[in-house]
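Let's do one together. I've listed all components of the complex below, 836 residues spread over two lines.
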Amino acid sequence: MPLLVMKFGGTSVADPDRIKNAALKVQREVERGYDVIVIVSAMSGKTNELVGWVEQTSPLFDAREYDAVVSSGENVTAGLMALTLQEMGVPARSWQGWQVPINTTAAYSAARFVDIPRKNIDQKFAEGFKVAVVAGFQGLSPEGRITTLGRGGSDTTAVAFAAAFGAERCDIYTDVDGVYTTDPRITSRARKLDRIAFEEMLELASLGAKVLQTRSVELAMRYKVRLRVLSSFEDTDQNSGTLICDEDEIMESKVVNGVASSRDEAKITLVTVEDRPGISAAIFAPLADAGVNVDMIVQNISEKDYEDHPGSVTDMTFSVPINQVERAKRAMEDARQAGHIAYDELVVDTEVAKVSVVGIGMRSHTGVAARMFKALADENVNIKVIATSEIKISVLIDRKYMELAVQALHDAFELEKA
Amino acid sequence: MPLLVMKFGGTSVADPDRIKNAALKVQREVERGYDVIVIVSAMSGKTNELVGWVEQTSPLFDAREYDAVVSSGENVTAGLMALTLQEMGVPARSWQGWQVPINTTAAYSAARFVDIPRKNIDQKFAEGFKVAVVAGFQGLSPEGRITTLGRGGSDTTAVAFAAAFGAERCDIYTDVDGVYTTDPRITSRARKLDRIAFEEMLELASLGAKVLQTRSVELAMRYKVRLRVLSSFEDTDQNSGTLICDEDEIMESKVVNGVASSRDEAKITLVTVEDRPGISAAIFAPLADAGVNVDMIVQNISEKDYEDHPGSVTDMTFSVPINQVERAKRAMEDARQAGHIAYDELVVDTEVAKVSVVGIGMRSHTGVAARMFKALADENVNIKVIATSEIKISVLIDRKYMELAVQALHDAFELEKA
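Okay, and this is what the predicted structure of the assembly comes out as:
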């Protein structure tokens, strides 16, 4: 029997009526001949309520207890979804993480999958059940306690089940109808993509397109799980939404397929850093130790000797999430106090945004960067930092130009055209 | 290490502040040298919310899914209580039913305990944990699914743990400060009892005193678990509340220790029933089949022959919970239609109440009934039905006299005096 995984996020199961709406989509796939594994999130708002209670109770909470508490929201939805399907005449039952079992590491609140044995669920399919409703976001540690997977955990659960059960596809039902060339709130010319390659989606996800969690896309790419993003709130069919798949499945791709933007960036510059072997390690090790996610890094190579700096000096610029600025500053100042690094000044710019163009076609096409920089220059947008990978080019710019830059790039690469 | 079981009901753990208040009581017992097993209910209101969703989803729900959903409230409280204790420096962890495991029958939504192996929790005590916080009301079926125990399940969980772990005592923290001679809302002369025997508490519980669930008292009596009822919301010490214990522990008992009353009663009389061997079975079997809880039964033996009833006839009167009257009527009419029983008329009186006096002293003292009936007669309260057991006498009276009757009996047996 062909098998599908269908995942419904928190807004898609926010109350019994929405659960019913989601169940109708499951029923339709069963009628098409699929066995279905449904992965559910907690009703929207419920996980936040639980997290709030935990934080109120214990600011430095034991992650084991945190996980035991916050995983309960998904259990509720799983049971209600199973009941809803039964009510429609679809043989279904709910599964909590420990019942499957979804074996994970013991890294509470940030657990990773170890394995998902098929035996128990396969046996129920063999007995005539058509749907297994699995509580997302949770698992079982080696010591028999409940774990959770961290942010976006339910998407990851869905992909892991699709991989473990060899699903034909993993459908992620959410509150948007697919992946767009860029954020439709920034330009109405944004176009829904029918297909996008894993690598591109990975870049877009990590660059701020909030449709899918990066980790679930990584997992899908590794196990070649065909992933589809589509709307819970619209009539959908087998061609709806956006398919995220191997690039082999994409006939002809444009050079650039998407423009991503993120306003939650800050730029930090260490001015007049002593330039010696090992200086990068001396700067970025304490940042890593402090849990700061450094993104873009630029070093201005400086050959000239300043009067008061007899050796070679440089400026080091990097970007961090805006809410980690204070932590980064403290880590740098501590390292300077300890004599591990030396710099004249630490300059923070929190008024920046990151804009990126992404496309697997860049691998074989040249001139993308030039076209991008020209489009920005034509709008008088000054570029502060540039970073590139094989399939993307990112720039840091003044935040006030972010929307303008996105629109200009969307037009320059003609993304509105299919 | 001596061990205590402490149980906190829904109002005692209704929010993080109340959980903290409960945790302080636990901490105090730990400081006194006890290992503690804490049994928690769901935050008040939460179970009803979950039940509401289930009923909205599926009126004839699958009890397996119902249990999976409604058990989640206790898991939340257990985790929050463990976190609160940790925050106070008390080594604690939470336990869900399947982790202990609390093995039950597969009677979903009405499961019964099979056994509670001590191994896992004992091991944690040996490792230095001082408190095991266990989610009440739930268990694990032989097929590995979650069960719940039905109404009052958390009290029953507490008593079962006290029995399994040989606890010195099982303390039930609730929103009243003990067991009273009668409902203090009916007479201000009601007195809190320091001690009461299991048998008496069982009669009081089943007669409408809502302090403890009948089933938990039965279990405590069977395993000789000393049970204490006390307030979550007052300062309490080791002498607070009411101890429910074996009668051997009660030095000298009064003849009557409590007056119970219940207004949720209805009286049904079958007029002119053919009186033949087997007629009681013919009447009460269909009622039992319909799930009607018949309480008091009186048969008026009639020797005389009526003109139109050549054989011997009788009237049969019984009481049922008021919300089961329609079900009882239907069962009787169906039995009459089917020719299994014959009667002239079915008369329902929903304006009745039951008042009872309870005391283990009745076993060895006579004259209690006479004293009761005289007290009621002095107030011109007419008795409609009488039923007795070894340690209680119950009467059905007009509901409007209920409070009056309770006050009169409380005075007649001098229950205000210790």
